[in-house]
Each structure stands twice: as C-alpha cells, then as structure tokens.
Amino acid sequence: MSEQLPACPKCQSEYTYQDAEMFICPECAHEWAEGENQLEDEQVNIQDAHGNILNDGDSVTVIKDLKIKGSSQVVKVGTKVKTIRLLADASDGHNIDCKIDGIGAIKLKSEYVKKA
C-alpha cells in the first residue's frame, strides 16, 4: 500500500480502514469523513443527581439502593464507585460504565449517583 491511512482521532489506533469516503476504526468503531482530521465534539455533558457534570475517571457515590436486574444482589446507598467511564450512546439510560467491588462490571444511570 503506497497510501498511509490516518490514525483514529478518537483512540489513536493505527488500524483504520477506508470504506468509500469514510474512515473506520475497528477498535472503537469511530467513523469520520475524509479530510476530517479533528474529532468532532462528541463529549456529552452527563450530570449527576445534583447537576454536577461528570467526567471519565471521576468517583461517584450511589444515592439510592439499586436492585440488579436478573440477580438478588443490591448496590447499597453510599457505595463509592471509583474510575467511572461515561457512555455517550446510552439508549437505555445507563450512561455510566464501572466496576463495583463485590459485584463486578455494571452500568449505572447518572440520576442515581452523586459526584464524590
């Protein structure tokens, strides 16, 4: 290949490919048009229950007992969750991805947490 494809502007992956006039990253599934070098403003302002803006890597505290669907486990009020990851495409409302000690990987709704 004589032509060098651009790295993904979202995750910096070098394994991009071209499909017609779009570039696609197989690692993060980001798509962008040819000549579009900068990442579009995809950041979504996700707020906690008190209106504070959350960021990736923040710590939050659960403000309500949350039953885990399909399980008998409960995330108790006051549970501190460290290093959250925000999800921009949360169609079901679960816009926080995290790991909770004793429970594992789980998705939470931002309306049930407060920034720690």
From TrEMBL:
Record's family?
Answer: Belongs to the YjdM family.
The record's listing under PANTHER family reads:
PROTEIN YJDM, PROTEIN YJDM-RELATED
Q: What is this protein called?
A: Alkylphosphonate utilization protein
Lineage, please?
A: Bacteria, Pseudomonadati, Pseudomonadota, Gammaproteobacteria, Moraxellales
Residue limits of the Protein YjdM N-terminal domain?
Answer: 4-33
Q: Which SUPFAM superfamilies match?
A: Prokaryotic SH3-related domain, Zinc beta-ribbon
Q: Where is the Protein YjdM C-terminal domain?
A: 46-116
Q: Which InterPro entries match?
A: YjdM, YjdM_C, YjdM_N
> Pfam family example for this protein?
Zn_Ribbon_YjdM
Origin: domain of life: Bacteria
